[in-house]
């Protein structure tokens, strides 16, 4: 434990914001708050402004530069007026800002080097009465601010740095990791960072925490943390089973062999074409990639559709005997979700907001799979029912006995049942992936139109993806827990 405390002491020196950084953020937030009050005074309705999120609670990792201001309007204000007045305030405070969309539009911009979100919401009395999802965020802030002392706040920062270091931080639907709010609740519930990792190493999902003991429904997620301000909601709903298992794995690793390396995110270097071919030669599998223009939607809409499409393609490949070893959806968008994704997603509390790629070039997506089998025989076996099952057996036999297709063998009896061997629809994986049948699987609704104009790469040809997809390819071929 002495070794762990020594490691955590050194990490704290790096990840806890210094006094100068805290003061600069405080001054900038105060300036923006005052500017927001001035913009509100010009409106024909009443409102107030509150700073929320990790920088309001002192739980941000050094170097994160996010300021989140929520403008609270009367709960009776209709949605159209809230959007109109909220955007008016946002643009007045951030004249160079731009509009983004969570559950409703808000303004995002920068000031003095800080990223600023200015979000309108309804000022409801209880989180259970929220009009939109963002309305609960001030309740989150009030709940945590009243309970996190300086020591717990410092442990929250450690926890966030650890989750960033292992790649499990961020509740955007690309990452499916721990949000800032979830991280803070867990540290608060367990009593610190070390108690959290000590507890996590022995979790047997499903694991449930109910801080206020008032859950109103049953949840089926691997980790359940009932929102203390809204008992109908699981704060960990976005967290994937993979990221929960990743957290448990590295909790055990940290406790067994403490190291600062667990708190340092690693950005993988892209694979080049030569390295991709080296992996292919060593593995002896056949890779395939279906590449297309990703639909022009925000990441939190795109990634669920890509994963659904990948599941459909993998199912289609397996059903046709091409035996998928492993598969992954990829995009050529630079980098993954930003370091502050966990906090910003919690602040907006939409679990569905992300920035569009700033370039004009369309994002390319790839459904990538490694196959154990890429060519099948020209015929395939089709088992009928046992002969003893008279009605079904007779129907099967009669449907094939008069079949004049020269490529159909049988029906004949093998053991106790009728069997035919008939022509296989697709003998090679390329035939299948280029056919209309590949589009008949359950694709994402907005992926489906783009899927018609797809490129199919098989074997060594996938190496040509390296310049655009080098990072996800390295993650695929050099996986870690």
Describe the overall structure.
It is a single chain. The protein is an alpha+beta fold and 481 residues long. It folds into 4 domains: 14-133, Beta Polymerase, domain 2 (2-Layer Sandwich), CATH 3.30.460.10; 150-263, Poly(a)-polymerase, middle domain, CATH 1.10.1410.30; 273-374 and 428-477, 2-Layer Sandwich (Alpha-Beta Plaits); 379-423, no CATH class. The protein is 40% helix and 19% strand. It is built from 16 helices and 14 strands. The chain has helices at residues 2-15, 19-41, 54-57, 79-93, 137-145, 150-165, 180-190, 193-200, 241-256, 273-283, 299-319, 341-348, 390-401, 429-433, 447-451, 466-477, and strands spanning 47-52, 66-74, 98-101, 105-111, 114-123, 207-209, 223-225, 286-293, 324-331, 364-371, 379-386, 409-414, 417-423, 455-458. The strands form 4 sheets. A 5-stranded mixed beta sheet has the order 1-2-5-4-3, with helices on both faces. The chain has a 4-stranded antiparallel beta sheet with strand order 9-10-8-14, with helices on both faces. It has a 3-stranded antiparallel beta sheet with strand order 11-13-12, covered by helices on one side. Strand 4 and strand 5 form a beta hairpin. Helix 6 packs across helix 7 (180-190). It is elongated. The two termini are 24 Å apart. This is CCA-adding enzyme. GO terms for molecular function: ATP binding; CCA tRNA nucleotidyltransferase activity; magnesium ion binding; tRNA binding. InterPro entries: CAA_C (IPR048833), CCA-adding_arc (IPR008229), CCA_tRNA_nucleotrans_2 (IPR042090), NT_2-5OAS_ClassI-CCAase (IPR006116), NT_sf (IPR043519), NuclTrfase_I-like_C (IPR011068), Polymerase_NTP_transf_dom (IPR002934), tRNA_NucTransf2 (IPR015329). Residues 283-332, 360-454 form the CCA-adding enzyme C-terminal domain. Residues 334-363 are annotated as: Disordered.
């Amino acid at each position: 434990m002495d070794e762990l405390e020594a490691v955590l002491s050194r990490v704290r020196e790096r990840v806890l914001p210094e006094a100068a950084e805290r003061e600069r953020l405080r001054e900038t937030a105060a300036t923006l708050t005052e500017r927001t009050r001035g913009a509100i005074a010009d409106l024909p309705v009443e409102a107030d402004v509150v700073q929320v999120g990790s920088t309001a609670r002192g739980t941000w990792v050094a170097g994160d530069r996010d300021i989140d201001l929520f403008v609270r309007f009367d709960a009776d204000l209709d949605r159209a007026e809230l959007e109109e007045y909220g955007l008016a305030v946002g643009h007045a405070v951030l004249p160079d800002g731009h509009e983004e969309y969570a559950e409703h539009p808000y303004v995002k911009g920068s000031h003095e080097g800080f990223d600023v979100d200015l979000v309108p919401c309804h000022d409801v009395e209880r989180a259970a009465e929220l009009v939109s999802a963002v309305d609960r965020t001030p309740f989150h802030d009030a709940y945590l601010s009243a309970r996190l002392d300086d020591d717990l706040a410092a442990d929250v920062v450690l926890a966030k740095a650890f989750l960033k270091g292992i790649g499990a931080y961020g509740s955007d639907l690309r990452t499916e990791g721990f949000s800032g709010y979830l991280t803070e609740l867990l540290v608060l519930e367990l009593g610190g960072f070390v108690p959290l990792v000590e507890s996590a190493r022995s979790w047997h999902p499903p694991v449930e925490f109910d801080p206020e003991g008032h859950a109103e429904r049953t949840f089926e997620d691997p980790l359940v943390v009932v929102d203390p301000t809204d008992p109908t909601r699981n704060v960990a709903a976005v967290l994937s089973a993979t990221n929960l298992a990743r957290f448990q794995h590295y909790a055990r690793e940290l406790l067994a062999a403490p190291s600062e390396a667990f708190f340092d995110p690693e950005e993988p270097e892209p694979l080049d074409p030569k390295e991709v071919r080296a992996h292919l030669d060593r593995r002896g599998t056949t890779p395939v990639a279906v590449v297309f223009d990703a639909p022009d939607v925000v990441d939190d809409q795109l990634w669920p559709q890509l994963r659904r499409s990948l599941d459909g393609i993998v199912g289609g490949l397996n059903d046709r005997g091409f035996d998928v070893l492993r598969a992954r959806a990829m995009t050529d968008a630079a980098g993954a979700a930003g370091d502050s994704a966990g906090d910003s997603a919690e602040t907006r509390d939409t679990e569905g907001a992300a920035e569009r790629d700033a370039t004009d070039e369309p994002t390319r997506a790839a459904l990538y799979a490694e196959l154990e089998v890429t060519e099948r025989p020209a015929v395939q076996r089709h088992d009928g029912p046992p002969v003893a099952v008279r009605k079904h057996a007779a129907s099967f036999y009669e449907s094939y006995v008069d079949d004049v297709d020269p490529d159909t063998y049988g029906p004949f009896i093998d053991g106790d049942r009728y069997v035919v061997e008939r022509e296989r629809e697709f003998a090679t994986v390329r035939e299948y992936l280029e056919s209309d049948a590949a589009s008949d699987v359950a694709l994402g609704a907005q992926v489906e139109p783009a899927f018609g104009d797809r490129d199919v790469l098989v074997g060594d040809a996938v190496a040509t993806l390296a310049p655009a997809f080098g990072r996800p390819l390295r993650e695929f071929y050099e996986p870690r827990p």
